[in-house]
Amino acid sequence: MIRERTVLLVAVSLHATAAHILHASAALAGPAVGDPPALPRRGANKSVASDADSAAPPAVGPSGLREPAPRPAAELRVQNRYARNTGTLQVFGGVDYLERRDFYISPGVRLGATYFPWESLGLEMQISHYFSQLNQAGVEVEQMSGVIPDSRAPTWLVLVGGRYSAGYGKMMIGGFFHAIHFQPQAFLQVGMHVHDGSFGPSGLAGIGLLVHATPRWFFRLDGGMTAEIERRVTGDATVLGFLPSLVTGGFF
């Protein structure tokens, strides 16, 4: 009787040991086919979400390229206007050249002033003196025939009139430290001339460009057409010409 009980206990113990060994080997080998997937532990979904957020692609910028970080806002800068015309007096001096196709070379110097009672309209007066001499064709005529052309050698030109400032502009050019400030202008003036001792009326109309070097200093390039009534040996003659000038001056 005792022997049978001992055999029974040994058999039960062997069966339990075999079952434990089978269970351990199955755990090491992984889940069997057809078993339901294991559920994630509590808190695992947070780490997964964090990994997904960190792996998300960067935002797409306005240019269509992916930007690793937000771009800082650009600061808009506009340079102030250098000077205003109202109530200012512009005094200037420079050089000019009177071309009339009259057998004379006529470079000159110019002095003048412009007062602006309004922003766009000023009153101007200028005087030019010319150092005229015969050109090559006139010299050849004088040497061959002993006579000089009937036209008068330009000497003095005095003009008064108006100057209109059409606006104010700024332009940035590479290599300069600041924008270039300028004013496109137009002018219409009348006066008189003294050419080789002969007096007569003159007129000038044209366009110009004033460029600010500093708030108080400027350069101005003008180009105009002249019309003069000149007294000659054969009678009065209307003479047309071209008068470019380059002056510099200041605001007062």
Describe it:
With 252 residues, the protein is of the alpha+beta class. The chain has a domain of 163 residues: Porin (Beta Barrel). Helices cover 19% and strands 45% of the residues. It has 3 helices and 11 strands. It is elongated and about 85 Å long. It starts with a helix and ends with a strand.
Report the CATH topology name of the domain at 89-251.
Answer: Porin
Number of helices: 3
Extract low-pLDDT stretches.
32-36, 43-55
The description of the largest β-sheet is: 8 strands, antiparallel, barrel
Helix content: 10-25%
Distance between the first and last residues' Cα: 138 Å
CATH class of the domain at 89-251: Mainly Beta
Mean pLDDT: 80
Write the layout of secondary structure elements.
Blueprint: H1 2-29, H2 44-54, E1 89-97, E2 104-105, E3 107-115, E4 121-130, E5 133-134, H3 136-145, E6 154-165, E7 169-171, E8 180-195, E9 198-214, E10 217-232, E11 235-251
Antiparallel strand pairs: 1-3, 1-11, 2-5, 3-4, 4-6, 6-8, 7-8, 8-9, 9-10, 10-11
Short description:
The chain has 252 residues and is of the alpha+beta class. The protein has helices spanning 2-29, 44-54, 136-145, and strands at residues 89-97, 104-105, 107-115, 121-130, 133-134, 154-165, 169-171, 180-195, 198-214, 217-232, 235-251.
